Amino acid sequence: MSTRHAWRRAPQHTTCSLHLFRGYNGFVTHLIALLLIAQVFEVASIKPNSPGGVSTGDFRFLPGGRLSAQQVLLRFFIQNAYDLRPFQILGAPDWINSAGYDIEAKGDLDSTPDQMRQMMQKLLEDRFRMKAHRETREMPVYELAAAKGGPKLPEPKEESCMAPEPDGPGAAPPCGRAMVRIGRIGGVQIQGERIGIGELIRIFSNLLGRIVIDKTGFTGVFDLQLGFALDDALAGLPHPPGPPEETSQQSIFVAVQRLGLKLESTKGPVEVLVIEHVEKPSAN
Predict the structure, then answer these.
(1) Three-class secondary structure of residue 6 per DSSP
(2) How far apart are CA 118 and CA 83, in angstroms?
(3) pLDDT of residue 58
(4) Which is deepest, 8, 187, 214, 277, by most CB within 10 Å?
(5) Between β-strands 131-146 and 212-215, what pairing exists: parallel, antiparallel or unpaired?
(6) What does the pLDDT look like over 2-31, one tens digit per residue?
(7) 180 exposed, middle or buried (CB, 10 Å; 0-12, 13-18, 19+)?
(8) pLDDT for the residue numbered 154
(9) Which residues is 141 bridged to in the sheet?
């Protein structure tokens, strides 16, 4: 008899546990929804103000969940919102390449860069009526690999750079970051101290206008001083009007060989953002 009663009570206990589990699941789902809703700027001001020349504008994340963008091109704002490079944005109208804005926005708490990007995406949806989706497409890419004989990356010098500071300039270049200088006559100059291969990949990808995949196998840090011609190979850079000037500088593909590396063109999967619709924003 007791065995039968125990067997009969078991489903009641299971049913009670199931209700508790469902209740907990519902609470968690509701909490996640509230957290997602909270990822918006409390206030946001958007004013048209297009930059001149080839500038993309000034863009900063500031303490207190604040965003400050001056004369920022809408394309550049979208890049930062989705953490993409220019060639990863497809389907957009031409006007996003010339329309600039002053954008000041503030959240309610200190936010991480990922949270700031979520709020920027929501701002694009609300004020620019932007609709977009992500896809993965087979596209041209570059692979950065070790050349015959292996990498020849210069050993870093002791105390030659300083720890990076978010806002203030310093007497020495920040460790781990490379500076890129571009001139019509001087070509492209890259200088950095105690940088990793990831920083070089990032810069090459921006300059070449393609994803660059690390195949070097190098995991250390190095100092870098590299110059090369401002030519058509640098598809990620705007080029001045008129025919290119005569130069004795080497292309990036030849220059990189001095580092014991090589750039090879191939194809690979690239994540892209396809913009379905975007409008100029309504007035504040």
Answers:
(1) helix
(2) 10
(3) 80
(4) 187
(5) parallel
(6) 444 434 444 444 444 444 445 555 555 544
(7) middle
(8) 93
(9) 266
Q: What's the pLDDT at 10? A: 45
CB count in 10 Å sphere of residue 95: 11
What DSSP line would sit under 112-158, residue for residue? -HHHHHHHHHHHHHHHS--EEEEEEEEEEEEEEEE-TT---PPPPPT
pLDDT band per the 50, 70, 90 thresholds, residue 153: very high
Calculate the CA 259 to chain-centre distance.
Answer: 26
Distance between alpha carbon 265 and the CA centroid of its chain, in Å?
A: 22
- pLDDT value of residue 32: 47
In terms of Cβ atoms closer than 10 Å to its own Cβ (0-12, 13-18, 19+), residue 262 is: middle
Q: What three-state secondary structure class fits 210?
A: coil
Distance CA 1, CA 148 (A): 83
Whether the Cβ atoms of residue 104 and residue 67 lie closer than 8 Å to each other: yes
